[in-house]
Amino acid sequence: MPEVLxxxxxxxxxxxxxxxxxxxxxxxxxxxxxxxxxxAPSRDxxxxxxxxxxxxxxxxxxxxxxxARGRMRSAAGKT
Length: 79
What we know:
It is built from 3 helices and 2 strands, in the order ααββα. By secondary structure, the chain is α+β, with helices and mostly antiparallel strands.
């Protein structure tokens, strides 16, 4: 069996469906449909993309969490 080599300090990036599962596990109620719409070029409001692998967008976990936190609105004044 071939040995798998990992780059020291390498991060595992997430595809868009994996990103949705990750954010939902972190408590953010978001769907793949919503992320897809936010990432559309006409909107460009999605989480920062690290790059593309073939045609798949890849995302960093830390940047995606920061993006989700930044989209939260304050509950001040709401009753």
